[in-house]
Write a structure and sequence with these properties.
Length: about 525
């Protein structure tokens, strides 16, 4: 009898360890042999911890389960899929999962993350095998054909970046996986690392074969201890099986990798700061050029890619770039793992082809707010993303469609706010966040963010509000065009969208009347 209890950090935060222990103890007390598999999460966080029993009819899910529910689950015969108030049924038939197109998250929540045989059962490492057979040039061509664009935020074509590294002659090349995942409301990278680590290892190995790199690093934020531990263990297992190290799969390619843990600065997600940090220095942005593809880690040609970009490669190489390209809209090809967060009823991971509208995501799939109050604003793309009002909910999830409306999709985080949100506070927070996280290298960001907080405080206090809002406009202009990187450069997105769509929040607030 197999029972699946997620070991994903979100499920653990909600009590999965206690649930796993209760299942073990209850099974022992009743003399039932149970094999507990610690899987990743399916990404329906409002149902976590969601446990699944393997029955002759397939896997049957129950959730959200607390340790004190376990006795009644056994009494109800949950091991055979018995009826219980927490019974969800077959997870794959749940509307939240059924409506998804899971190319990257195909295995997440289904397999045992560290079991290589489970991964192989899903054509694991066949993408790497195909890359080795095709050779570097054809592999890069296939990735270009797929239309894959970087999932970390900037949306730069992955295959083009690889070609630059491949064509640069150097004694040493590197693959660096950006797993800093600093954007608010995002968790997709973490879910892959905890729930399907071999997919990321395979993606990095494919990138290495394509570019001639022999060493890789996964830079993981320190707030992700579970991801650090799963990835580290997976690397050891893969190495033991000859999937990393000398002569990959018996070929002439060598590639190995290590985990590196960041120290918790948002700017270390920016690729050049990340490289500084990897070199053991303070995380400070480097001026470009040179591009990391020419001179990156230790001044050698380096591919820096987000977890999701690299995790997309298994599908692209196994099914072909054309199959991936068939999903999506416009120049946004393939699927996007979207993260629904904040004040939302059904928060979690929703992977779908580009093209879905923001309204479908928030109202329909997400079920509106968790508080039950009306949605007032949605911030897409992390702390530097724009605030969209419901009037813009017909915006399609597509890089260009968001840019046209003054926003960005970034890493795909969607954070929902109800009608109690104060957009002045959110705009102030954007400046405050920037002031706190700024690496300090350039003046528009280092000084501008502090001036932004002060000026917004004057607006709220009613001190020359019109003139100070005009000053905010000027400041945003200076930050947008004068900052060295997108931390200072993108702060105008949340600030100007808040002022544009929610002007009433920037009027002076009268002190609350005494009771
Ligand atoms: C302030 C800042 C923070 C960033 N944080 C991340 C991050 O946490 N993860 C990430 O993959 N990219 C992040 N990026 C984008 C990276 O600089 C870079 O574009 C990305 O790692 C490239 O990989 P991709 O092409 O696969 O997206 C950030 C950029 C900026 C300006
Ligand atoms: S914009 Fe900010 S974070 Fe970026 S280089 Fe300038 S000071 Fe550093």
């Amino acid at each position: 009898m197999r029972v699946f209890v997620p070991k994903d950090a979100a499920a653990i935060a909600l009590g999965a360890e206690d649930v796993a222990a209760a299942v073990q103890e209850t099974a022992e007390a009743r003399g039932i042999a149970v094999d507990i598999v610690r899987n990743g999460s399916r990404g329906m966080f409002w149902l976590e911890p969601m446990i699944e029993a393997e029955t002759p009819q397939g896997r049957i899910a129950y959730g959200p389960v607390e340790a004190h529910d376990v006795t009644s689950l056994f009494d109800a015969g949950f091991l055979d899929g018995g009826s219980h108030p927490l019974r969800i049924g077959k997870p794959e038939e749940h509307p939240f999962l059924k409506r998804q197109t899971r190319l990257v998250f195909e295995r997440c929540g289904i397999t045992d993350p560290l079991c290589l045989n489970d991964y192989r059962a899903y054509k694991g490492f066949e993408g790497l095998k195909r890359a080795i057979e095709m050779g570097p040039a054809a592999t890069i061509d296939d990735v270009i054909l797929s239309g894959l664009r970087g999932r970390g935020g900037a949306g730069f074509p992955t295959g083009i970046k690889w070609r630059t590294v491949a064509e640069t002659v150097a004694p040493q090349k590197y693959i660096v996986c950006n797993a800093d995942e600093g954007d608010s409301g995002t968790f997709a990278d973490r879910m892959i690392m905890e729930g399907d680590p071999y997919c990321l290892i395979e993606g990095m190995a494919i990138a290495a074969v394509a570019t001639g790199a022999t060493q890789g690093y996964i830079y993981i934020r320190s707030e992700y201890p579970h991801a650090v531990s799963t990835m580290s263990e997976a690397i050891v297992c893969a190495r033991r099986e000859g999937l990393l190290g000398e002569r990959l799969l018996g070929s002439g390619h060598s590639f190995d990798m290590e985990v590196r843990v960041g120290a918790g600065a948002y700017i270390c997600g920016e690729e050049t700061s990340l490289l500084e940090s990897l070199e053991g220095k303070r995380g400070e942005v480097r001026a470009k050029p040179p591009l990391p593809a020419h001179k990156g880690l230790f001044a050698q040609p380096t591919v820096v890619n987000n977890v999701l970009s690299l995790a997309s490669l298994h599908f692209i190489l196994v099914e072909g770039g054309k199959a991936y390209r068939d999903y999506g809209m416009g120049r946004s090809r393939g699927t996007k793992p979207i993260q629904l967060a904040g004040n939302i009823k059904h928060g979690g991971l929703f992977e779908t082809a580009f093209g879905i509208t923001l309204g479908e995501l928030v109202d329909d799939i997400g079920g509106g707010t968790a508080s039950g109050r009306p949605v007032r604003a949605v911030q897409v793309g992390g702390p530097l993303g724009a605030y969209f009002p419901p009037a813009l909910f017909d915006t399609h999830f597509d890089y260009e469609a968001f840019t046209e409306r003054g926003g960005l999709i970034g890493h795909g985080g969607v954070v929902v706010f109800d009608d109690t949100v104060d957009l002045w506070e959110q705009a102030r927070f954007a400046f405050e966040f920037c002031a706190f996280e700024s690496c300090g290298k350039c003046t528009p960001c280092r000084i501008g963010a502090v001036r932004g907080v002060e000026t917004l405080d004057k607006v709220r206090a009613g001190i020359n509000p019109a003139a100070n809002l005009a000053l905010i406009d000027e400041l945003c202009e200076a930050m947008k065009f004068g900052s060295l990187c997108a931390l200072g450069g993108f702060v105008p997105y949340p600030v100007t969208s808040a002022i544009k769509y929610f002007p009433e929040d920037f009027a002076r607030r009268l002190p609350a009347a005494a009771e």
